[in-house]
Design brief:
This protein is an alpha+beta fold. It is 34% helix and 24% strand. An 8-stranded mixed beta sheet has the order 1-2-3-4-5-6-8-7, with helices on one face. The chain is elongated, with a radius of gyration of 43 Å.
Length: 282
């Protein structure tokens, strides 16, 4: 009895461990910080809230791109949409640069200083408040600009860095781009009013024929062509349509004489008159 009890205790301990691990991971994901638009919460526009909600499907994804420029620059850029790259640091870093030579990390932009706006088929996401420049850009804080372009059928792809503008005195930035279907406008229905009416009419006809056929066959017990719903009515209607077509499209009037006469018609007429001559009174 001792062995089964120890085995049961071991299994229970393993189950408790995995349940605790799952709960911890779920709690960590739920406690992750998200984008905070610059300014007071009361000043956030409905458009900004709608755009952030539109970007939510990308929040659980991670994006990386490596840049090598000679022997002096070798960086990896880590990016998350409205989430911290490393949530354990609690630094709000949404886009982080890592130097592959010495392992130094630099926050390019933070999610607690977010700007977002859009066009017809793109969304511009901006993280401000990054680590300060040294000698460049008057020592201002870094800023990441991410251009998300519409690409249907793709959740997210092609994350890349376009350029770094640091030769100005102010308003320097890192420019990135990526493709995603979240930036695409809603597709309008291509069905016209006429198409919708035609589909509705065809559906009603199909229901009428199938339903009528089943009723005639299963309830009435009709066979053959009689299974068609209202067969006599449609037969009469067809005859009327045929008569109308014959009346409208006929090339000659009804009372027109025949175009040909039988051989001997004249002779037969004359013979009949001659045969009746002997009946007249002398």
């Amino acid at each position: 009895m001792g062995l089964p009890m120890s085995s049961l205790c071991h299994t229970s301990a393993v189950l408790v461990f995995f349940v605790a691990l799952a709960v911890g991971v779920g709690a960590q994901q739920s406690n992750e910080r998200s984008c905070d638009v610059i300014g007071d919460e009361s000043s956030e526009s409905q458009m900004e809230r709608a755009l952030l909600k539109k970007l939510e499907p990308l929040s659980q994804m991670r994006f990386n791109v490596t840049v090598e420029k000679g022997k002096t620059e070798n960086y990896v850029y880590h990016f998350r949409v409205c989430r911290e790259v490393n949530s354990t640091l609690h630094d709000f870093g949404g886009l982080v640069q890592t130097d592959r030579q010495n392992g130094k990390t630099t926050v390019i932009g933070r999610i607690n200083e977010t700007q977002v706006f859009n066009g017809s088929d793109w969304i511009m996401l901006i993280y401000k408040g990054g680590d300060s420049y040294g000698r460049h850009c008057s020592g201002e804080k870094r800023r990441a600009v991410i251009m998300i372009s519409c690409k249907r059928g793709v959740t997210a792809s092609s994350f890349s860095i376009i350029s770094e503008e640091r030769e100005k005195e102010q308003e320097c930035f890192y420019l990135f781009e990526m493709d995603s279907n979240v930036a695409c406008p809603a597709e309008d229905s291509h069905l016209s009013v006429g198409s919708i009416l035609l589909i509705t009419f065809a559906s009603l006809i199909a229901v009428y024929i199938i339903g009528g056929f089943l009723y005639q066959r299963l309830v009435v017990g009709a066979k053959g062509m009689e299974q068609f719903p209202h067969f006599a009515f449609w037969q009469d209607l067809g005859n009327l349509v045929a008569d109308g077509c014959d009346f409208v499209c006929r090339s000659k009037p009804r009372n027109a004489p025949a175009a040909y006469r039988g051989v001997g018609d004249d002779q037969l007429g004359e013979e009949s008159e001659e045969r009746d001559d002997h009946l007249l009174p002398m």
